[in-house]
């Protein structure tokens, strides 16, 4: 499924009582019991059923059953903003801290940009423009359990990335992430868009820092062909053992590569191996073997890892950003499903299941295989786990606030992409720390 057409204290009461030796211990015991009952989540970590420790590849015989970019560009090229927003203080306690095990905590200082100060927000992610009534979803930050994660500092990030190139490869959620990064950097400097007017891929340059950011649209990561070039709703043809030359030919140009995919793999598709049709997903042909989306998903990530490991001229760092869950409630995306929450889930209130859990497991398994091979080839594969934090953020999607109400037309609610500003901005807090570790640690 894909949405490409547009793609939540306890009160206090005070009673007067006589202080007697008998009452004091009773009050102490009652306090402990009440605290434990009302806040059972505080001492716990996020315990999703996601601890994958096996990386055995299935045998060869095993069958495991984006809209265009925004038209508005940076007018006049690069320009600086004199008064960037304040940045919350924070210091990472350890370079080995698990950034992805934690919880969302209030951040009254956020957000650090608005939909009027950032020029890269697409309409269908511009939730405040289209009347979203609540603002609390913008005032949370991700807090790892064992360390303090600094809020994104545009000055620090630009210093870390001076003379480097950053590439995002994937679907429209990858583009969503890149646009969040551009927005956060815009408090200091805006880039020059040097993309070709007709190109679906985007290249931004920060000339003063000799730094560039690219987004390469490759929602399946592997070679893809449309049944109808003018109708994206028709089935796609996936060549599982072939690379997508859209991005594979540019790997060597990046110092940091963030690869992600997932939301397109539940669409109707035909699967090919060695240019021969071997199966399909949601096709009406009774003569073609029906397979699950996990079949093509594993192939896609295996091809991706094999390509990067086999690229002898790639000397950078490849981050695998894991699947960011959607949050449709009350039905699927095409049956009135919606996402109307206004605050994050608390830890352990929400877990992955079904399709999304399968996707996450496959990503971790294939990452483990890639890292093993990478130790021999010298390629650094790193985990960028957006799954654990974002499974808790059902409040951060556009829902119906990615467009004006349509007359005599039903537009599906968007519970896949993320509002800007919004929870996706925390991905760049994580990215900044991941980059800092790599710049200082050439493992």
UniProtKB/TrEMBL annotation:
InterPro entries named among the record's database cross-references: TBL (IPR029962), TBL_C (IPR026057), TBL_N (IPR025846)
Domain Trichome birefringence-like N-terminal: from-to ranges: 96-148
Source taxon at top rank: Eukaryota
Bilayer topology term: Single-pass membrane protein
Gene Ontology annotations for the cellular component aspect, listed alphabetically: Golgi apparatus; membrane
Gene Ontology MF term list: O-acetyltransferase activity
Membrane-crossing residue ranges in chain numbering: 23-41
Intracellular or extracellular location(s): Membrane
Residue ranges of domain Trichome birefringence-like C-terminal in the record: 149-433
Entry keyword set: Membrane, Signal-anchor, Transmembrane, Transmembrane helix
Family assignment from sequence similarity: Belongs to the PC-esterase family. TBL subfamily.
PANTHER family according to UniProt: PROTEIN TRICHOME BIREFRINGENCE-LIKE 19 (PTHR32285:SF247), PROTEIN TRICHOME BIREFRINGENCE-LIKE 9-RELATED (PTHR32285)
Name by which UniProt lists this protein: Uncharacterized protein
Record organism: Dorcoceras hygrometricum
């Amino acid at each position: 499924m894909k949405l490409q057409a547009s793609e939540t204290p306890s009160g206090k009461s005070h009673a007067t009582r006589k202080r007697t030796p008998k009452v004091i211990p009773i009050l102490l015991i009652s306090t402990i019991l009440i605290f434990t009952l009302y806040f059972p989540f505080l001492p716990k970590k996020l315990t999703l059923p996601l601890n994958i420790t096996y990386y055995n590849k299935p045998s060869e015989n095993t069958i495991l059953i984006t809209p265009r970019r925004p038209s508005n560009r940076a007018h006049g090229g690069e320009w600086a903003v004199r008064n960037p927003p304040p940045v919350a203080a924070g210091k990472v306690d350890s370079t080995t801290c698990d950034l992805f095990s934690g919880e969302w905590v209030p951040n009254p200082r956020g957000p650090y940009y608005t939909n009027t100060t950032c020029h890269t927000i697409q309409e269908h992610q511009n939730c405040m423009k289209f009347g979203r009534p609540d603002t609390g979803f913008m005032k949370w930050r991700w807090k790892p359990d064992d360390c303090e994660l600094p809020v994104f500092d545009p000055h620090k990030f630009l210093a870390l990335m001076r003379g480097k190139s950053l590439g995002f490869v994937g679907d429209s959620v990858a583009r969503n992430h890149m646009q969040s990064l551009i927005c956060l950097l815009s408090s200091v400097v805006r880039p020059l868009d040097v993309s070709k007017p007709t190109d679906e891929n985007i290249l931004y340059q920060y000339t003063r820092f000799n730094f560039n950011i690219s987004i390469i649209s490759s929602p399946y990561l592997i070679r893809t062909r449309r049944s109808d070039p003018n109708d994206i709703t028709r089935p796609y043809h996936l060549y599982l053992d072939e690379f997508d030359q859209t991005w594979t030919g540019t790997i060597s140009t990046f110092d940091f590569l963030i690869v992600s995919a997932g939301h397109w793999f539940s669409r109707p598709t035909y699967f090919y191996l060695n240019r021969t049709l071997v199966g399909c997903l949601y096709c009406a042909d009774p003569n073609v073997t029906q397979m699950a989306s996990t079949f093509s998903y594993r192939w896609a990530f295996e091809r991706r890892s094999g390509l990067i490991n086999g690229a002898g001229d790639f000397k950078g760092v490849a981050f695998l950003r894991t699947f960011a869950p959607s949050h449709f409630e009350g039905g699927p995306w095409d049956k009135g499903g919606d996402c109307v929450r206004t605050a994050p889930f608390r830890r352990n209130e929400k877990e992955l299941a079904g399709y999304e859990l399968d996707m996450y497991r496959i990503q971790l398994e294939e990452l483990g295989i890639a890292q093993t091979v990478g130790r021999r080839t010298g390629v650094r594969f790193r985990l960028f786990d957006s799954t654990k934090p974002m499974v808790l953020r059902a409040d951060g999607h556009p829902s119906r606030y990615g467009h004006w109400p349509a007359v005599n037309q039903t537009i599906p609610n968007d519970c896949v992409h993320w509002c800007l500003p919004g929870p996706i901005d925390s991905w760049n807090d994580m990215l900044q720390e991941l980059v800092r570790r790599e710049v200082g640690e050439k493992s």
